[in-house]
Amino acid sequence: MTRRHAVAVTGLGVRCAAGATPEALWESLVQCRPATSLHAFDDEGSVVYPACAMTDFDPAGYLAPKEVRRADRSVQMAVCAAADAVADAGGLHVVPGRRAVVTGTGYGGVISQENGIGHPDVLYAPRLMHNAGAYWISARLGITGPSLTVSTACASGTHAVGEAMQMIRAGCADVVVAGGHDSPLTPTTALAFGRAGAMVTECEDPAAASRPFDVERRGFVLAEGAAFLVLERLDLAQARGARIYAALTGYGRTSDAHHLTAPHPDGLGARACMEQALADAGTTADAVTHVNAHGTGTELNDIAEAQAITALFGPRKVPVTAPKSVTGHGLGLAGALEAVITAWSVREGLAPPTASLTRLDPRCELDVVTAEPRKIPNGPVISNSFAFGGHNASVVFDSPHG
Fold it and tell me: Can you give the pLDDT at residue 1?
């Protein structure tokens, strides 16, 4: 059997309300500084809910004005984050045919779609297609190897990172730019999630609207942005003296096959997904030093994920973080953003705290990190995404030094 290639994380790039760089994002997390504020989803101000909007986003310097007109806002963010990740990695040091891109998005160009209904222009279709981000990134970065877009709702970003790792392992590519993007802050999207009871629509303190695992949680907070990682064959990264954030060592994906939107109440699919990722990484639950939870702040998701974590690791046996308390929930972006956070956690040896958690739901028997970062030893860290449709994805990061 051919030895599979080990995979390194050599570049990171983000665009989100909690930070336009990985450093700024990390600072927001360790300071428990949520990026949530009241946001008007329509020009009339008739739909105003808490959200994590990137109000100062500007693609200038990355895209020309003509290109901006051709790309949905989510794709503009993706191009910026991907370019930053590649710059952070010091470039793509293989020929174009050995480069690949994998993007994840839940909603594609939904802003362009809503704006064009009834009066589409000639660019309507290419602006809203889900694979537009993959096109723009491949064209901008000279990627002529595999190009793939994954759309599995809130697991899209994690699936993108995991599938990128598989490409390198299989020898299909030596370097992959992988991540997720979504900009779903439209009135229709907000009204839909609000009427479904999944999203926070009102609260006393907008900054504390996202409260995963708290008894007072009211749902998730909608966010926008993009996050990308440069994944590289570990031996090639080491040979060129690259700075390596972490090794990507494991990937699991399962399906609940239970309900269109609700997770399996016992978290069986989530647990199986984590077990699969750990087995793929060649490690065990006992070795895990930290869990980056999906932690949306919806009752069904929080309880199902907590049961899965408790069943696998034991009650309160592993430190758990829920970054969506700071970043909000970017749907297809979320898993990629949290992959960036997890890789940074491995490098820093710290589990960032969960913001706005004042009273843990007693049905969630978890050791949730709060108030300040917690030191974690070297060892595998797992990041989870559990999505509508019962799509589960988990990835494992570890120190590149073993």
Answer: 40
Predicted pLDDT at 266 = 83
Q: Where are the beta strands (DSSP E) in 53-142?
A: 99-104
Closest to 347 measured CA to CA, from 241, 248, 237, 245: 245
Per-residue model confidence (pLDDT) at position 267? 86
Write the DSSP symbol of residue 352. P
Q: What is the mean pLDDT of residues 270-292?
A: 97
Calculate the CA 5 to chain-centre distance: 24
> What six digits make up the tokens of 127?
């602006």
Residue 389's pLDDT is 85
∠130-246-157 over CA atoms, to 5°?
15
Residues that are catalytic: 154, 294, 329
To 10 degrees, the CA torsion angle through 213, 215, 220, 225?
A: -50
- Contact of 63 with 137, CB cutoff 8 Å: no
Q: How far is CA 255 from CA 17, 151, 203, in A?
A: 31, 14, 33
Whether residue 166 contacts residue 251, with contact meaning beta carbons closer than 8 Å, is answered with yes
What's the CA gap between 88 and 304, in Å, rounded?
37
User: Contact at 8 Å (CB) between 385 and 273?
Assistant: no
Token code pair at residue 171: 């020898």
Q: Rounded to whole angstroms, how far apart are CA atoms 245 and 13?
A: 12
pLDDT of residue 394 exceeding 60, the answer is yes
Please tell me the pTM assigned to this model: 0.97
